[in-house]
């Protein structure tokens, strides 16, 4: 394996030869994934990142050849999905989509591959999909609409006032299957033109701007009517202004509606509000193809002229004396330009810009007109204008003083911005390279760029400074070629950021805050197979009928030959035979008519069951059998048919057909002849359906196998697992064979799924195909993966084909929506094959086997002793292959902290105190017998807080944790219990003091005393001194009378007697014994001689004792002391060897490594406990003694519990 193999290289191997061998082997097609993965792993230790001579990794080639299992294994092994090759800057995602392997793209996406990563040509992986090569068919013409942005005026038409941050489909048109040809969006409303020529509006209708005759607000698109002058009149362009709406028809008629305070409607008789569309007066132009509606004016563009009307605020280039143009007026252009024609026009509130076929540029602004002849020596392809000075005396006009800016996009795919303040064009460049963009538009001083079907938001940076502005005025009539119109010293940079969820964009529009884009129809080239319905007749039951079956219910005899028949079919098809059967006393009847024989009667029954006419072949066959003339046979047949009242057969005898002719069979109904019902189908909820057995057996294979092979006669069928709402349509279709009747019922999608399952159960292939066709009409971006999975599960071939077509056409959009991530890999493999066949990628996008690759036999021989696990997943603790930086170390430390935090929180949540325990704690804490009255004046009692106080709950949880830790002590503790001294006022005698017996150490999963990481370094002198400490304390001075000291450790957080009274009679100094100093509180007045005494602070076990119990300990001389005791004389009677010292140091080091990454929440628990203790002992308000509560670490070579509570 990788971990056991002895490689000749390391993980940092960069040999190009290794990369060449791996990438060459990946081009082989006959090698299994297991053998190929083993070869990759055995060739180089750095197999995930090794590069070949073109900078490609194994992941690049795995994506190129469609080996998704190897790609998944490489990614789990640490391969970088974002790495770009040196060939074209492609990532693995680029290659997977370029070569058409969807399965590899899904694997990469699951591992976090980015779909927006651009290559060297600024092309992202989604733009390499083949969907843009698909052309729409006639049945699926038009575009779908996507909207996003601000929606405070309901102008997006989504049904609410909420904004949309990301582009999404407009559900109204999708649900109604309406395609859009044009859209115009404004601040207050929007209008849509469908591919069928219908007009829809949405938004605020104040002033009648919606044209629906009302001023109400419309939250979803509503159809609007307009007055047609002729029946063939159609809308060819639409435009929505801030206050009004314009539409242009193919008859050069303009219709307007909305508010008219500035004359922008162009209607002389219009009032302030025009609620419905009305024709604009006095416009007689020809070949008009575009209209523009702005806030204060309107204009219409034809092939040679521009007409404007509305408020004149400088944008018409006319004198300021002309305030309002109430009817359309032509803008002044040169006669030469009128002949050559107008190419491009754009307008905002401040200006109008026109570019002609003769390369003249006209700018109408500030009551003037400026003309430029071929200003850039490049042909313009698109122009857009923004800003501009607006000055007016009217109060309802928004003023502006910003200079005009003109955005120009040329046929050479260059972008320029013309600045009014410098009178020059400035070249725009992108951060990557000169892109071959398709369209550009202003949007709030930014730009929206269309590039390969995607939209990008462009931020303009490096704008011109004031120092670069020109102060020399240029005459507006001066010849343009005499001026320096192109700025060579400055450039404007555009930073592009892709707008997500937008692919296959054809056009877009915006009003600054709201956006709308028209995208290719998702069903634009979907080929739905034609549904071929089988001939509806009963030929099978006619041919299979016999006297032994239990399906027929009547028998005719002709010339002693039996003919089993079915009454229901006979009654529906022949009234003559019906009468014969009704007059019969039993279920048998002998027919004897002149000229009737068994062959002729068989032809009659064939017509009844199959609706097949008599052909020339039938006559020839009868003539040959009876040795008669054909004319005699025909004459006899006519007579018999007349007698049996078969008019259609009689007519067919006049001109016999050479081949068999089958006429459409008439449909039946389940309600016909209810007296002949002979089968009851029992369904769910005790529902029943009564039917005719012969019809079900003939049409449904399920019933055919049930009844035709059974000798027993059955009149009931139990299908209690099926509801009647599903079974009734099936039975009705069996009778009627009417597909349109099922379609008109408009079943839901879930209902259709259930119907397919039932049809698959009853082997109704034809009906199943019908429901598959209905479901295929409901396929969209969100549900196509679920439908495809369903189709594979129930073997729906028609539905499979439609789903895979839909995925192939809309692959980029589906990948961005992550719709295909949950498909199984066998389905994805079949989808790969379909996708490559659908676009013929085998012809021009395929990787051929490399000639230098290792032979198949040699490769298998090379890896026979090497195995890899292709199903191995990423190790969560695996280090990422990134440079070792400080941030990575911090991240690993944080990861450890999180792990400790999760473990600690899990334990802390389990800490609880029962009701009895709480009452005991409360009783001990506030027992008047334990706490003296004078102590109550300075001790802050915690039970004065409310019962639900979180601090109080935390305090009780701390007590309970100590109770738990009493049984989980890791090491022996023998600290001196302060309560021994603090609870007595009499002198202490050392011979009666003893240490508590050691408890059995146990391993604890969590220790609240281990939360403070302190990495202490011991010097050699300290280690020797610790090794020489004696375990037994020898008292060499005068003996002291032993005194039994009663201790009460009911409350581990406080003393059981007044500390103040104790200090009055017995001065005691408790030192912080950090340097192995022996406490000298026995050297005071009550102890005349120095005594060697073992310090006995309270242990964790003592601190965690039950509050209701008390223990007494006697401290005697010569008792065993713990390792914290130091000899006053400096002489120890116990020496440790060097090996023991090393073992202790090793244990300390291991423990330091364990606690150095303690979680923050554990530190917070400690801080909370210290805060509670300080509040309980009223530390800040006590001045006659020094009470210090802090974390304390005891230096020891064998006891590693660092934190204790100590008073000082």
Automatic annotation (TrEMBL):
Domain of life: Eukaryota
The RCC repeat ranges on this chain: 143-196, 197-251, 252-304
Claim: Nucleotide-binding is one of the keywords in the record: no
Region span, Disordered: 1079-1136
InterPro entries attached to this UniProt entry: Ankyrin_rpt, Ankyrin_rpt-contain_sf, BTB/POZ_dom, RCC1/BLIP-II, Reg_chr_condens, Signaling_Regulatory_Domain, SKP1/BTB/POZ_sf
Ranges of Low complexity composition bias in the record: 1089-1112, 1122-1136
Domain BTB positions: 552-617, 677-743
Designated name of the protein: BTB domain-containing protein
Pfam families per the UniProt record, alphabetical: Ank_2 (PF12796), BTB (PF00651), RCC1 (PF00415)
Keyword hit for Heme: no
Native source species: Corethrella appendiculata
Sequence ranges of the ANK repeats: 54-86, 88-120
Alphabetic keyword roster: ANK repeat, Repeat
Alphabetized PANTHER family for the sequence: BTK-BINDING PROTEIN-RELATED, INHIBITOR OF BRUTON TYROSINE KINASE
């Amino acid at each position: 394996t990788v971990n056991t193999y002895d490689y000749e290289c390391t993980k940092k191997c960069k040999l190009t030869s290794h990369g060449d061998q791996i990438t060459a082997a990946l081009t082989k097609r006959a090698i299994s994934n297991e053998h190929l993965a083993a070869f990759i792993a055995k060739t180089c230790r750095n197999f995930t990142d090794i590069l070949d001579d073109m900078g490609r990794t194994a992941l690049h080639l795995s994506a190129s050849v469609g080996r998704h299992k190897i790609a998944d294994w490489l990614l789990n092994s640490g391969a970088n999905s974002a790495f770009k090759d040196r060939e074209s800057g492609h990532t693995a995602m680029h290659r997977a989509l370029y070569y058409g392997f969807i399965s590899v793209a899904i694997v990469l996406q699951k591992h976090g591959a980015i779909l927006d990563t651009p290559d060297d040509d600024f092309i992202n992986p989604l733009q390499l999909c083949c969907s843009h090569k698909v052309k729409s068919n006639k049945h699926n013409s038009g575009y779908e609409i996507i909207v996003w942005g601000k929606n405070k005026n309901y102008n997006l038409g989504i049904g609410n006032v909420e904004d949309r941050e990301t582009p999404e489909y407009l559900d109204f048109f999708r649900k109604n299957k309406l395609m859009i040809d044009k859209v115009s969006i404004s601040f207050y409303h929007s209008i849509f033109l469908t591919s069928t020529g219908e007009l829809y509006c949405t938004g605020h209708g104040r002033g009648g701007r919606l044209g629906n005759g009302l001023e109400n607000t419309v939250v979803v698109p509503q159809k609007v009517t307009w007055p047609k002058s002729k029946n063939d009149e159609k809308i060819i362009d639409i435009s929505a202004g801030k206050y009004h709406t314009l539409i242009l028809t193919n008859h050069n008629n303009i219709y307007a509606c909305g508010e008219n305070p500035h004359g922008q409607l162009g209607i002389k008789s219009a009032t302030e509000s025009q609620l419905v569309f009305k024709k604009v007066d006095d416009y007689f132009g020809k070949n008009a193809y575009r209209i523009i509606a702005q806030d204060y004016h309107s204009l219409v563009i034809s092939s040679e002229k521009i007409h404007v009307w509305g408020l004149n605020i400088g944008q018409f280039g006319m004198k300021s004396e002309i305030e309002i143009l109430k009817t359309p007026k032509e803008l002044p252009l040169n006669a030469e330009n009128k002949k050559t024609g107008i190419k491009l026009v754009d307008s905002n509130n401040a200006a109008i810009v026109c570019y002609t076929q003769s390369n003249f540029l006209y700018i109408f602004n500030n009551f003037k007109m400026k003309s430029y002849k071929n200003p850039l020596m490049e042909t313009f392809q698109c122009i857009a204008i923004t800003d501009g000075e607006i000055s007016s005396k009217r109060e309802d006009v928004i003023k502006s003083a910003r200079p005009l800016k003109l955005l120009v996009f040329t046929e050479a795919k260059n972008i320029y911005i013309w600045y009014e303040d410098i009178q020059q064009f400035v070249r725009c460049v992108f951060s990557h390279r000169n892109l071959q963009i398709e369209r550009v538009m202003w949007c709030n001083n930014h730009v929206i760029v269309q590039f390969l079907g995607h939209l990008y938001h462009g931020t303009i940076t490096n704008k011109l400074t004031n120092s670069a502005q020109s102060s020399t005025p240029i005459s507006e009539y001066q010849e343009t070629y005499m001026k320096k119109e192109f700025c060579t010293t400055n450039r404007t940079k555009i930073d592009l950021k892709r707008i997500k969820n937008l692919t296959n964009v054809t056009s877009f529009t915006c009003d600054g805050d709201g956006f709308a884009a028209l995208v290719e129809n998702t069903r634009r080239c979907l080929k739905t197979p034609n549904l071929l319905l089988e001939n509806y007749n009963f030929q099978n039951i006619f041919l299979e009928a016999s006297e032994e079956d239990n399906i027929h219910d009547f028998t005719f005899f002709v010339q002693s030959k039996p003919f089993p028949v079915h009454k229901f079919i006979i009654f529906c098809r022949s009234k003559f035979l019906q009468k014969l059967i009704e007059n019969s006393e039993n279920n048998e009847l002998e027919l004897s008519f002149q000229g009737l024989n068994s062959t002729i009667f068989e032809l009659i029954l064939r017509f009844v069951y199959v609706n097949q006419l008599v052909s020339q072949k039938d006559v020839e066959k009868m003539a040959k059998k009876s040795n008669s003339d054909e004319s005699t046979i025909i004459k006899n047949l006519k007579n018999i048919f007349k007698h049996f009242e078969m008019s259609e057969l009689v007519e067919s005898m006049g001109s016999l057909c050479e081949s068999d002719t089958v006429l459409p069979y008439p449909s039946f109904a389940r309600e016909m002849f209810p007296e002949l019902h002979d089968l009851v189908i029992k369904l769910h909820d005790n529902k029943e359906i009564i039917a005719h057995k012969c019809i079900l057996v003939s049409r449904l294979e399920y019933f055919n196998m049930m009844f035709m092979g059974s000798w027993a006669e059955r009149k009931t069928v139990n299908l209690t697992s099926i509801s009647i709402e599903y079974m009734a349509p099936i039975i009705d279709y069996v009778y009627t064979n009417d597909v349109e009747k099922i379609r008109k019922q408009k079943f839901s999608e879930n209902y259709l799924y259930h119907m397919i399952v039932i049809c698959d159960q009853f082997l109704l292939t034809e009906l199943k195909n019908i429901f598959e066709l209905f479901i295929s009409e409901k396929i969209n971006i969100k549900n196509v993966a679920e439908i495809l999975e369903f189709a594979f599960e129930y073997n729906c071939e028609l539905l499979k084909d439609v789903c895979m077509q839909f995925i192939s056409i809309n692959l980029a959009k589906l990948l961005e929506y992550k719709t295909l991530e949950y498909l199984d890999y066998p389905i994805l493999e079949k989808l790969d094959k379909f996708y490559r066949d659908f676009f013929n990628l085998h012809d021009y996008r395929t990787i051929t086997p490399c000639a230098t690759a290792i032979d198949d036999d040699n490769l298998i021989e090379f890896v026979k002793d090497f195995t890899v696990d292709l199903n191995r997943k990423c190790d969560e603790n695996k280090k990422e292959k990134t440079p070792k930086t400080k941030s990575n170390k911090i991240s690993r430390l944080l990861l450890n902290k999180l792990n400790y935090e999760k473990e600690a929180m899990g334990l802390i949540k389990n800490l609880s105190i029962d009701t009895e325990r709480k009452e005991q704690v409360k009783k001990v804490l506030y027992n008047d017998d334990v706490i003296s009255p004078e102590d109550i004046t300075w001790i802050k009692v915690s039970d004065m807080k409310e019962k639900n106080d979180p601090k109080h709950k935390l305090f009780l949880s701390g007590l309970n944790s100590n109770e738990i830790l009493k049984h989980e002590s890791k090491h022996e503790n023998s600290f001196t219990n302060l309560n021994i001294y603090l609870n007595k006022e009499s002198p202490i005698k050392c011979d009666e003091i003893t240490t508590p017996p050691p408890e059995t150490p146990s391993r604890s999963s969590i220790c609240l005393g281990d939360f403070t990481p302190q990495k202490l370094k011991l010097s050699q002198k300290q280690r020797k001194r610790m090794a020489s400490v004696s375990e037994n304390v020898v008292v060499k001075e005068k003996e002291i009378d032993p005194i039994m000291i009663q201790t009460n450790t009911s409350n581990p957080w406080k003393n059981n007697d007044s500390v103040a009274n104790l200090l009055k009679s017995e001065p005691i100094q408790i030192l912080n014994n950090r340097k192995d100093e022996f406490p000298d509180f026995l050297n005071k007045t009550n102890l005349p001689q120095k005594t060697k005494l073992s310090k006995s602070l309270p242990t964790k076990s003592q601190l965690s004792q039950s509050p209701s119990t008390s223990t007494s300990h006697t401290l005697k001389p010569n008792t065993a002391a713990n390792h914290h005791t130091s000899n006053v004389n400096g002489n120890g009677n116990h020496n440790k060897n060097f090996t023991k010292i090393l073992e202790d140091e090793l244990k300390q080091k291991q423990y330091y490594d364990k606690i150095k990454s303690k979680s923050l929440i554990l530190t917070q628990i400690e801080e909370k406990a210290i805060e509670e203790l300080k509040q309980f002992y009223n530390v800040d308000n006590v001045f006659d003694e020094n009470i210090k509560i802090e974390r304390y670490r005891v230096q020891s070579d064998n006891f590693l519990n660092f934190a204790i509570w100590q008073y000082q």
